[in-house]
Amino acid sequence: MSEALDALEASLPFETNGKTPETNSSKSSITVSKPIPYTFDLGNLLVNDANPLPPNPSQAHLSATARDCAQALINQLLTTCPITSSSDGVLMTLPPPSTPLPREKPLPPEKEKTKWEKFAAKKGIKDKKKEGKMVFDEETQEWVPKWGYKGRNKDGEGDWIVEVDEKKEKKEAKGNEVGVGGEGRRERKEKVRRNERSQRTNERRGRKKDGGGG
Questions:
Q1: Three-state SS annotation for 20-59
Q2: pLDDT tens for residues 146-169?
Q3: In the predicted structure, residue 114 carries a pLDDT above the cut 50
Q4: Residue 42 CB partners (closer than 8 Å, separation 6+)
Q5: Alpha carbon 174 to chain centroid distance?
Q6: Which of 21, 82, 177, 192 is close enough to 171 for a disulfide, judged by CB 3.0 to 4.6 Å?
Q7: For the stretch 69-79, what's the b/e string if a residue is b when 16 or more beta carbons lie within 10 angstroms of its beta carbon?
């Protein structure tokens, strides 16, 4: 491990202590000393230099200052972060970032309330707590689905004898209704069709409101 660190440090071609490339004729030291110590956010690979610059600094002075910051950051990483060696090479584990950064993208716009949500807010109607998909059947003493295969919404459809409603029987005689055994299934399918029509209507209304046309 020490050999890997020595090789990494030896490969850093940095000057030191504010000296410019013109004044450094030999290999630079890796020690950086400043009147005001640096502060670091290693999780973001960030170093903060509070030392003031002179008025109208030269390009050489700016380059030397940037070099010192980079050298100090590398020194801090090598001395404080865990370093491990693996088949992929030498790996360094960074700490969590401590400096909040701005979002890459703006906040998404607030979702417009639906017609029902506006009506519920106006009338003070609160959403019911969502329940599970299973319900306990007192007759069979088992948990069964509310909907779908063997669901409670299909109770009575498989009964071999059904109590007849006189009004519905009269309608059936006129040819306006199906048989009693299929009454529950017919009503359930009709409810599904009504929901689908309502959904398509809401979608068209939403597209028109967004300017997309109908």
A1: CCCCCCCCCCCCCCCCCCCEEEHHHCEEECCCCCCCCCCH
A2: 777 777 666 666 566 667 677 766
A3: yes
A4: 76, 77, 80, 81, 94, 95
A5: 58
A6: 177
A7: bebbbbbbbee
